[in-house]
Design brief:
The complex is a heterodimer of chains A (about 325) and B (about 500). By secondary structure, chain A is an all-alpha fold. Chain A contains 14 helices and four strands. Chain A has a single domain, classed as Orthogonal Bundle (ABC transporter involved in vitamin B12 uptake, BtuC), CATH 1.10.3470. In chain A, about 75% of the residues lie in helices and about 0% in strands. In chain B, helix 4 crosses helix 5 and helix 16 packs parallel to helix 17. The two termini of chain B are about 40 Å apart. Chains A and B meet through helix 9 and helix 10 of A and helix 2 and strand 8 of B.
């Protein structure tokens, strides 16, 4: 069973090996990398990337793309930071609730435009990406919200240690597990695959592709909103440029993890590995003394190679086998 | 007389200005097979799409067991127990076979998908159809016939009371057809009402209890199969004589034009050799997936053959791209008009000049006046019905679109015209116009290779008929030798 899984998912196998090799070489070159404090921080960073990438995957599965996830996180993060500054005594539950509701509402804007107006998602989210960023500026008046203005509960939730790692990392793990179960066992999750894999056949099977795209955008938005709060709390500051350009890393994590840009293929395991890979590059290379520009180069190369490999494995099955084998013909 | 399980009456449906269905009438009975026959463009597939909720009828009434029903969506059709097996297998390549079967109704337990049950039930259904298919396989790894079986398994799985089969045998071998017939008999015994769409008369008489004939979007006749015969079905279908449909001209056959020798490519085709003469229409017949289009695409330079030789007027060709093929005088009309043949959102003029832009451009800029002149010339010559050369291709009827695409290739002054299913999906009048045009082209010395899956068309138009099966040439008949039985026997698996 496990063996067939790895055979079926060459991206997953290759990526696992690559990550192990990377971890080994970094630990040998620079043993302090394995320091628990360092690892915890790297894991927290990666958890943010991981959860947003899982959200992005829902959208990619339906043959769409969400470029607005980072802007959504910045806007929602700013809103909850301002709320917390105004009502420091309200506790953490309203903050979580606002971030989820607002995030999914912003996602619904994308989803409805894609579903009802049939505008290509890349255009819709390119627009909302700028709109969301602009709104951050407007509601904050361009000012920062600093950690001094945030309540203890707001700041410390993400840092709550639990079995060796922080709650933020647990949140990433939990979202990944929930996403895995959702995609494997719920009708909506399964239909996301069907809708992206063959929209026409999905329509014949009574699956409403547009509605599912909207659902995917709302899920992606909800996770982005929650990540917005986590981001602001983790770094202790909210401002216009929070997570600026992060959407590209989110999409990169998906693509490296084997999620097809043309929809219908990919899984949570791959996305987690993709995020881990980028997280390790980002956190390990600086400690080994490699320039940040090299990090860009390496992650860029890996994305290109990953995409080339994935399309290569698909091309193999693309050619039609018409000729009858010689053994059969007398 | 018993009450029909399913009935359609007075159904109409238009797309833009084109009336696809003018009077759709159909009755299906439980435990019986009704054969729906009619030429391409008669409105059969529109009717199927209305029955399966993909399209909504403009007017008319649908009744299920006597009760009026509204089939507002594909999901509604599924709920009502209407299941369709489409001509082209509609499957999800990256999903497992089991999930493909249960796509509209995955088994669930406590609200979540029950994979164990899904695999078990899929294995049970597949055991009767093809024990060689593992329910855990990806659909991507199946052959065409097996993908059809998945669709049949779908109909079996959801206990559909109305089963629609849209030319299910088109891509199947002889043995597979036999097996399909047994499945249909079983569905009958289980009391399901079956609509069987086919072009093959032997299938109607072997399988069907009733028939319904459509022509030009209207029901023109129906009744019991045992009370009719082949010729009366044909006259209902066609409504005109064969000579009117196929205006075959007598053109003297000239010198060899295109010679293909021992052409092979990977798993697609092997050892294909033939000669096309000037003034000749060479028909290439075979089942879907026989490798015909692949051979033509290799000649046109879309895919490079592994071995073999191609010569034009005795000159060896080494074609590496479609651009080189066009320069040598070879034109290729692809099978899929919408996706490969023309650019729907461009004007007629822009479409026509596309392959010969270098001929009418000056220092890299296209001369608009030349473009207009060329377009107007072909609109006149081919009698394309349009308001102006600036009209968008997507606004034309299927037949006129096909004329524009033929014009586009004529503008390159070809010597060899390869036409892949040249009349697929266009109405009978437009077909005749295309046939007449083919006659005019060969009378000017061109050679035409016509790839077609339609026996009447091949027999009506071709001077010689090549038959392909599974990537190899199996037979070559002259016009005089060709009979439907001989052609079909060569095309079908032994």
């Amino acid at each position: 069973m496990l063996k067939s899984f790895f055979l079926r998912a060459p991206a997953v196998t290759g990526l696992s090996l690559l990550i192990i090799a990377l971890l080994l070489s970094v630990s040998i070159a620079f043993p302090p990398f394995l320091d628990p404090v360092n690892l915890k921080s790297a894991f927290d960073d990666t958890a943010l990337l991981m959860m947003m990438a899982v959200g992005e995957m829902f959208v990619l599965l339906t043959r769409s793309v969400d470029l607005s996830v980072a802007a959504n996180a910045a806007l929602t993060g700013m809103v909850v930071a301002l709320f917390n500054a105004k009502h420091p005594g309200a506790g953490i539950l309203p903050v979580l609730l606002i971030s989820l509701v607002m995030g999914s509402a912003l996602g619904a804007v994308n989803g409805l435009l894609v579903w009802k107006l049939r505008i290509p998602s890349i255009v819709v989210t390119l627009g909302t990406l700028s709109v969301f960023r602009g709104l951050v500026y407007i509601i904050s008046g361009g000012a920062w919200v600093n950690s001094g203005q945030m309540s203890h509960a707001f700041l410390n939730l993400v840092r709550l240690p639990l079995l060796g790692i922080n709650l933020l990392s647990w949140a990433g793990v939990l979202i990944a597990i929930l996403a895995f179960l959702f995609l494997r066992y719920s009708l909506t999750g399964r239909n996301l695959y069907a809708a992206g894999n063959n929209p026409e056949a999905a329509a014949y099977a009574g699956i409403d592709v547009g509605r599912l795209q909207c659902v995917a955008f709302m899920l992606s938005g909800a996770i982005a909103g929650l990540s917005g709060y986590f981001w602001v709390a983790r770094f202790g500051v909210a401002y216009t440029d929070v997570a600026s350009g992060f959407e590209l890393q989110v999409i990169a994590a998906c693509v490296i993890g084997g999620v097809s840009i043309s929809g219908g293929a990919g899984g949570v395991v791959g996305v987690i590995l993709g995020a881990l890979f980028l997280g390790i590059i980002k956190n390990a290379l600086p400690v080994v003394g490699i320039s940040p520009f090299f990090q860009l180069l390496i992650s860029g190369l890996v994305i290109t190679v990953a995409v080339a490999l994935n399309s290569g494995t698909q091309r193999k099955t693309h050619g039609r086998h018409i000729l009858e084998s010689k053994k059969v013909t007398p | 007389m018993t009450e029909p399980a399913f009935s359609l009456s007075g159904i109409t449906k238009s797309f833009g200005g084109v009336r696809a269905l003018v009077r759709g009438e159909l009755e299906l009975f439980a435990g019986e097979v009704t054969a729906l026959v009619g030429e391409n463009g008669a409105g059969k597939s529109t009717l199927v799409k209305i029955m399966t909720g993909v399209y909504q009828a403009d007017s008319g009434e649908i009744r299920l067991n006597g009760q009026p029903v509204h089939i507002g969506s594909a999901a509604a059709a599924n709920r009502l127990g209407i299941s369709a097996i489409h001509q082209e297998p509609v499957v999800f390549d990256d999903l497992s076979v089991a999930e493909n079967i249960f796509i509209a109704a995955r088994p669930r337990r406590h609200g979540v998908v029950d994979w164990a049950q899904m695999y078990r039930r899929a294995a049970g259904i597949l055991a009767e159809l093809d024990p060689g298919i593992d329910p855990r396989m990806l659909a991507r790894d199946l052959g065409v016939a097996q993908k059809h079986l998945i669709q049949i398994a779908r109909a079996l799985s959801n206990e559909a009371r109305i089963v629609i089969m849209d030319e299910p045998t088109a891509a199947l071998s002889h043995r597979e057809v036999e097996e399909l017939f047994q499945i249909v008999q079983r569905l009958k015994r289980e009391g399901r009402a079956i609509l069987f769409i086919t072009h093959k008369f032997e299938e109607i008489f072997a399988l069907a209890d009733r028939y319904a004939v459509f022509r030009d979007g209207a029901a023109v006749g129906s009744g019991l199969v045992c009370e009719t015969d082949r010729s009366s079905l044909i006259s209902m279908m066609v409504g005109r004589t064969v000579d009117q449909v196929f205006p075959k001209q007598d053109v003297p056959i000239g010198a060899p034009l295109l010679q293909v020798e021992a052409l092979s490519r990977g798993e697609e085709f092997a050892d294909v050799s033939f000669t096309l003469n000037g003034g000749e229409i060479l028909g290439v017949y075979g089942l879907i997936g026989a490798g015909r289009s692949e051979v033509m695409q290799a000649i046109f330079g879309l895919h490079r053959p592994d071995s073999g030789r191609i010569a034009l007027r005795g000159e060896m060709l080494n074609i590496r791209s479609p651009g080189e093929a066009i320069a040598k005088g070879i034109a290729y009309l692809p099978e899929d008009r919408q996706s490969q043949g023309g650019i729907l959102r461009a004007s007629i003029g822009e479409n026509i000049v596309l392959p010969c832009l270098s001929g009418i451009s000056h220092r890299g800029f296209v001369n608009r006046r030349d473009e207009q002149a060329l377009a107007r010339r072909f609109i006149g010559e081919l009698q394309i019905k349009t308001s102006s050369a600036g009209q968008l291709l997507e606004e034309l009827s299927g037949g006129n679109q096909q004329k524009v695409i033929i014009a586009k290739w004529l503008a390159t002054n070809p010597q060899v015209m390869i036409m892949d299913e040249p009349t697929k999906g266009i109405d009978i009048g437009a077909k005749t116009a295309v046939y007449r045009l083919m006659g005019e082209l060969v009378s000017k010395g061109l050679g035409i290779i016509m790839v077609s899956s339609e026996l009447p068309e091949i027999m009506g138009m071709a001077d010689r008929i090549l038959v392909m099966r599974r990537g190899r040439l199996r037979a070559c008949f002259s016009r005089a030798e060709a009979t439907p039985e001989r052609i079909v026997a060569a095309a079908a698996d032994a």
